[in-house]
Amino acid sequence: MAPLILKAILVLGGLGFVFSIILGIAHQRLAVPVSPKEKAIRDVLPGVNCGACGFAGCDGFAHAIAEGRTDIVCPVGGEEVMQKISEILGIELGGVVPKVAVIRCKGGTGIAQPKYEYYGVESCTAAKLLHRGHKICEQGCLGFGDCVRVCPFGAITMGENRLPVVDYSLCTGCGKCVAACPQGIIELMPRANPIYVACKTTLPMKQVRLACKAGCIGCGLCEKVCPEDAVHMEGRLPVFDLDKCTRCGTCVEKCPTKAIVIAETEARVASTTTSS
Length: 276
Fold this sequence. Notes:
By secondary structure, this protein is of the alpha+beta class. It is built from 11 helices and 8 strands.
């Protein structure tokens, strides 16, 4: 028995050795040559392989940049990395606007009214398949954290009210949470001026009041009181002109349901609540 086992080990070991030689030769013969420019670009990329650039990883992104097939936009590395890449390519870098994710819903537990009790897979995508979700407002956050699970930087956590909270010090604006949200309530906004209405409901005013205490009722008061003419109603929701908005806070103060958010203020409130 022992000689047979020894023979099997030797045969398998020999085959492994032969195959390793074959693979080594194949790797050298079939290897795709990497240009010095591509290697230099790859060396300055963050290496997190998050896919925010639209490619499977940093290697694919570097190859596409070197061939001129994509723009130099790396949400994770930011302007510093993109500046280094532009220097490698010998071109001038255009203006890049850093962005962060914002949550356009405040209808958490006790605020948004349920239309039934949901017992099932704790996933927003799964919950939405059952009668468009368990809340009366069918555009609201479903609260199961699909966005939390896909964030590669740990920038999103779920609050006690079952709403996601974004840590703007960690958010890179990669957009993975935007793609993961089946409700479309997560959007990317310029980091320097994030003011928005935290509601995307299409319900009429009377139904909004029944569905969510924090929902926008479409009263248009924010448009009327804005001193900079930076808010305009489109349909039944306000839209902000960020070039005009000074973030004076008048619309936030006057909003009857407090649906308007200045994101930095929201982040400080969330941070204070967590620390206490």
